């Protein structure tokens, strides 16, 4: 964008008028003259901005419909029938619940994970919900392998409409004791794994010219230190995920691809249950830290993600939804 005839006008301590970086003695501008100069600058900038924007062909057009709130029911807006959702880290834990949430709204589901096989609950998708579901063993940290997996998903399902990046790992260890290898592994899975998965999904969505939704799993640990845990590198990785979301939400908006994050607090999963069994003190923290005085359930997350994948969230992008039981707000 070209900017022309832009001057910074100000009065020095000696009463001189400063233009740009050069100052010389001359009669002081009157208020009206300064206002006209500023107005000219605004007009020039606005004209240049409008010209640059006009060169961008909009990827989609939205017609004003003041009656849409009456003609589009909540049920219709939330429906994911006919869509395909990719979920990384969906073999178990939070990822599995998020995959089921989209399947319950009618989406076909492709679940990606590094585990040899998914949880038995994954088999319920087709049997109980009547949607297509397939498991792909892959690694989100291997670009070549991950790319091949996405190609296979497209071959099997024909398209990708939503991508939920739930693959992630954590290291609960004091900062001064965390090794470089441990830190790099967390960053590789949580940051680059998210980056690569979102990139592959967005490329397919753009090729389809259909728009889409990318939902990244961040964490309340990106916002605050959590009681009784040492999550320095984990919190840093999830902060990066939130930053990535903001960047992509703007960059991908011309293709009508929405990007959002969710930030869970303490959530009950098989992993947290095993951890609590070996550390009863930590279990007490899980159940008492949040103002709502309980640990979260995966059911508290799946509806939020399903909403973000649906047309009900068609005007929601670049945001982070905190699901923490109030933990992010503070503690008494």
From TrEMBL:
Question: Keyword annotations for this protein?
Answer: NADP, Oxidoreductase
Q: MF terms per GO, please? A: oxidoreductase activity, acting on NAD(P)H, oxygen as acceptor; oxidoreductase activity, acting on the CH-OH group of donors, NAD or NADP as acceptor
**Per its UniProt record, what PROSITE patterns does this chain match?**
ADH_SHORT
What Pfam families does UniProt report for this protein, alphabetically?
A: adh_short_C2
Q: In the UniProt record, does the keyword Transmembrane helix occur?
A: no
Reading the lineage from the top rank, the first entry is Eukaryota
Family membership noted in the UniProt record: Belongs to the short-chain dehydrogenases/reductases (SDR) family.
The entry's protein name is: Uncharacterized protein
């Amino acid at each position: 964008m070209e900017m022309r005839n832009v001057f910074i006008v100000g009065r020095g301590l000696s009463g001189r008028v400063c233009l740009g970086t050069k100052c010389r003695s001359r009669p002081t501008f009157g208020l009206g003259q300064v206002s006209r100069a500023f107005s000219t600058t605004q007009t020039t900038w606005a004209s240049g901005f409008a010209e640059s924007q006009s060169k961008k062909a909009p990827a989609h057009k939205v017609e004003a419909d003041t009656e849409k709130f009456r003609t589009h029911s909540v049920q219709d807006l939330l429906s994911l029938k006919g869509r395909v959702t990719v979920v990384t880290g969906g073999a178990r834990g939070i990822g599995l619940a998020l995959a089921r949430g989209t399947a319950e709204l009618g989406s076909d589901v492709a679940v990606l994970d590094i585990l040899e096989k998914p949880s038995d609950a994954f088999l319920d998708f087709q049997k109980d919900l009547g949607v297509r579901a397939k498991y792909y063993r892959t690694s989100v940290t291997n670009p070549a392998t991950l790319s091949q997996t996405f190609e296979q998903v497209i071959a099997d399902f024909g398209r990708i409409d939503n991508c939920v990046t739930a693959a992630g790992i954590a290291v609960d260890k004091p900062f001064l004791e965390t090794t470089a290898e441990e830190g790099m592994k967390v960053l590789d899975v949580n940051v680059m794994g998210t980056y690569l998965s979102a990139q592959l999904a967005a490329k397919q969505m753009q090729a389809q010219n259909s728009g889409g939704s990318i939902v990244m799993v961040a964490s309340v640990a990106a916002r605050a230190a959590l009681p009784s845990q040492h999550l320095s590198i984990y919190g840093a990785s999830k902060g990066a995920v939130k930053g990535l979301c903001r960047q992509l939400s703007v960059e991908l908006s011309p293709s009508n691809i929405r990007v959002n994050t969710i930030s869970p607090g303490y959530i009950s999963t098989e992993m947290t249950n095993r951890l609590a069994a070996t550390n009863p003190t930590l279990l007490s923290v899980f159940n008492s830290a949040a103002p709502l005085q309980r640990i979260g359930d995966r059911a508290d997350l799946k509806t939020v993600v399903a909403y973000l994948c649906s047309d009900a969230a068609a005007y929601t992008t670049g945001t982070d939804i905190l699901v923490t039981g109030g933990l992010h707000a503070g503690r008494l």
